[in-house]
Write a structure and sequence with these properties.
Number of domains: 1
Mean pLDDT: 82
Helix content: 25-40%
Strand order of the largest sheet: 1-2-3-4-5
Shape: globular
Oligomer: single chain
Number of strands: 5
Strand content: 35-45%
Length: about 120
């Protein structure tokens, strides 16, 4: 199914807003979010570039196996796989997604209702 350009732009804007929100909450003391690219298709994914304090090169992050979960009328973004171009960060990221640090936060991201409806039509 071909997704109309205006819908792609809306979804891209939603993702950028949510990425900025999550980055601000968890990572603002460690660096800054540079940019992202949302790739839609049979296997949607998000590619991100991040500058971390103390690193000379940007960090590339790929989020894949993305799904939208509806539970009790609420929508959640669930990321099943993370790929980071630094070995130790790759391990840390996957451990987080696997729930190893669930005492820190949930490994799903709550979405605004309208965003959840829109994203659930794509993922």
């Amino acid at each position: 199914m071909k997704i109309p350009g205006i819908l792609v732009n809306m979804i891209d804007s939603l993702f950028k807003h949510k990425i900025n929100e999550v980055f601000e909450k968890y990572l603002k003391d460690y660096g800054k979010f540079i940019d992202h690219e949302l790739i839609l298709g049979s296997e949607p994914k998000v590619l991100m570039q991040i500058e971390l304090n103390g690193e000379t090169e940007q960090i590339n992050v790929e989020l894949s196996e993305i799904e939208i979960l509806k539970e009790s009328g609420e929508y959640y973004l669930i990321i099943g796989k993370i790929t980071i171009n630094r070995e130790w960060m790759q391990k840390l990221g996957q451990d987080f997604l696997d729930g190893r640090y669930s005492h820190l936060s949930e490994n799903r991201i709550k979405l605004p209702h309208q965003s959840g409806i829109l994203l659930s039509k794509v993922f």
